Amino acid sequence: MSVCIYPGTFDPITNGHLDVLERACRMFEHVIVAIADSKEKRPCFSIEERLALVEKNTAINEKVSVTHFDGLLIDFVKSQNANVIIRGLRAVSDFEFEFQMALMNRQLGPEIETILVMTKEGYNYTSSSLVKQVAQFGGDVSKFVPKNVVEALKTKFTEKPS
């Protein structure tokens, strides 16, 4: 069975992420969406919240499973008996970072390939960071993220601090 890992922080998942996932599903029999814990990035949503948001948008696709990991991606990929990492590219500016990551992963696991997939036009300027910034100031992000994410962002940014 051909298995690939689609890793990311997914804080939150965007329509661009879902576009890359849809195309990965056309190439592989099984795609594991691997949500990085990434505490050092100080995510807006907890790992549990991100898992729930992603699962809600992937539940109907039998080719997709969702989990989380902490530590080196290459170790996680090996633990899942996968041999491919798929990553999305929005713009040329993403390429250098992804290229460096792919080369490092190749050094750590030469049997693991990385495939870079360009996002569909219209998603190339969308990032989770920008979506959160717009949502934080009450902007409409419904063109960029699924409905459940819109609601989660509204809730997150209207919560009263305790």
Describe this structure in words.
By secondary structure, the chain is of the alpha/beta class. The protein has a single domain (3-158), classed as 3-Layer(aba) Sandwich (Rossmann fold). The chain is 43% helix and 19% strand. The protein has helices at residues 15-27, 47-58, 73-79, 92-108, 128-136, 147-158, and strands at residues 3-8, 30-36, 64-69, 84-89, 113-118. The chain has a 5-stranded parallel sheet, with helices on both faces. Strand 4, helix 4 and strand 5 form a beta-alpha-beta unit. It is globular, with a radius of gyration of 16 Å. The termini are far apart.
Radius of gyration (CA) equals 16 Å
Could you tell me the mean pLDDT?
Answer: 92
Number of domains: 1
The count of helical stretches stands at 6
What's the CATH class, please?
Alpha Beta
CATH topology: Rossmann fold
Helix content: 40-55%
CATH architecture descriptor = 3-Layer(aba) Sandwich
Biggest sheet details: 5 strands, parallel
Give the name of the CATH superfamily: HUPs
Q: What's the count of strands?
A: 5
Question: In summary, what is this structure?
Answer:
The protein is of the alpha/beta class and 162 residues long. The protein has a single domain (3-158), classed as 3-Layer(aba) Sandwich (Rossmann fold). The protein has helices spanning 15-27, 47-58, 73-79, 92-108, 128-136, 147-158, and strands at residues 3-8, 30-36, 64-69, 84-89, 113-118.
Primary descriptors:
162 residues, alpha/beta, Rossmann fold, five-stranded parallel β-sheet, 6 helices, globular
